[in-house]
Queue: 2 jobs
Job 1
Amino acid sequence: QVQLVESGGGLVQPGGSLTLSCASSGYTANTGCMGWFRQNPGKEREGIAVVYGGGGFPLYADSVKGRFTITQDNAENTVYLQMNNLKPEVTSMYYCAADDVVVGTLNVGWYKYWGRGTQVTVS
């Protein structure tokens, strides 16, 4: 059984930084694709950063390029999202997702496994 557990969310002031972690069990991080998505109430979930190829190939949404960095620790089966220069508009629930078939897409519908999310609030 695959489990993805997010951590690292919280309240941060504008301009601050946070690092989110997604620890996986029952899933090998260096296969397929893992990444981060976010969703606000009443809005569609959107992909913001994913990584595939054992961590060697990151893909970012335009809205976060240059400010967010996704990395992967294959030994720990964990994916991280370093978020810098945070702005209030990135306040959202952040979800980790993974799939052992898909690679290189931010499309929500392709991902089989999901965590429960961690809240990020910038205020």
Job 2
Amino acid sequence: QVQLVESGAGVVGPSQTLTLTCSVSGGAFIFVSGYWGWLRQPPGEDVEWIGGIRFDGDTDYSPPLRSRTTISRDTTKNQIFLHLRSVTPQDTGVYYCARAPGLRTVPDGYDVWGQGIQVTVSS
């Protein structure tokens, strides 16, 4: 059974880069199929899709965040990475990595989720 665990800094300064790692376990050849997304939930708001990476390595990004976001992976370590540049307090929230059968830009399409990690943008 696939399991996802997010890790990274819990506090990031304004204008800095937020970097998170999603460690994937629970089977061989994990990235041969499926879609691996990053999502977040700001305080008091709904979960929103940030972007994701396909099984072939191609990436997709939410248009409002595209210019600040890079998603990548290390298949040798079964890890997926999120880099969000030039953060502001509006980037504060709980960040999740999740898996879906294919490209999904809404939270409902993801069937396996990590536990989430709180990230606060503050000086």
